[in-house]
Amino acid sequence: MLYKPDISRAKNYWKAFWEKEIIDRPVVSITAPKNKDITPDFDGSPLRTYKTCMSRDYDSYLNDYESYAQSMYFAGESIPHIGVDLGPDQYAGFLGSTLEAVDGHYTTWAHKCVEDWSKFEVKIDKSVDSYYNHIKQFYEYAAKRANGNYLISQLDLHSNIDSMSALRDPSELCFDIMDCPEDVHRVLDEIDRSYDDVFTMAYNAGNMKNLGSIGWAPTYVENGKFAVIQCDFSCLLSPTQAREFVIPSVRKEAAYLDRSVYHYDGKDALGHLEDILAIDDIDCIQWVPGAGQPRTIEWMDLLKKIQKAGKSLWIFDWTAEEIKANFKELEPHKVAFSLGVASADEADGLLEYLVKNM
Predict the structure, then answer these.
(1) Is residue 154 part of a domain?
(2) Inter-CA distances, 178 with 50, 163, 186, Å
(3) Taking the complete model, does pTM exceed 0.90, yes or no?
């Protein structure tokens, strides 16, 4: 791998992480500019990737990433990778919604297209001009261009009832759950069955079987199917409703995958924590407290509870000094840290510190 000459060593650390073992320190995915006086920049936003995909101007985007990767030091277990998403509502786009991208925004979103679930047919649109076909072509081109020098990450899926929320409208879907639960169940079950189709398209087009898998959560799996699972709509549901309309879908996705990270977003979803932790096939949790909430380092009791339940943690917002001061609070074989630092010396210094202080 051109931008990661020590990829074989990094693979061993990731393998140990997924098996809840440890080599000599916690897994750390850490990046730094090679030149400490220059901070490289790369726009990999959903808005940029959407425009790239729909215009088929792939080379401009990939040129920018390769220039960025050339200037970066991928230390520890960081793996060079690039996303080719259409944005978090793309699954709804595959099912018939129109996606919108507006300059000045970071992401894209789906337009409501469902008025009555009883009349809605779950079908992945694979026509020539469909979002599905556009993203498939983007994947294939990017994977061929990358040629193993960097990875193409799995889609930000937002499948399950999250896609229904984008197709319909979150508040209206809340009423539908009460007014027409049978219709909601029928559509949700059909969406669950479509997961393999969408996942496999990206998995094959991105050459993940041969090179390994990574997602927007930069946790790498050398062999097998990996994705980030999430259900942001769960924040709007009671625990009883979530057990009926969320947990079964999440359980199916986790069982389908060989490895997974669950993106746990917002304290309003904490009412479902015990149910999520009870899903054996979920390997790892990313806790995101939400806007206006204390950072993850201030949720130590929750982090310890997650590990005690047998899950690993992906922690994305601690500084190098915070990791040094607090990593022993957690079980080191069940945590992966991701961060960027100002220099290669700082990156190496953190890794050396962790080895010496295990």
Answers:
(1) yes
(2) 35, 18, 14
(3) yes
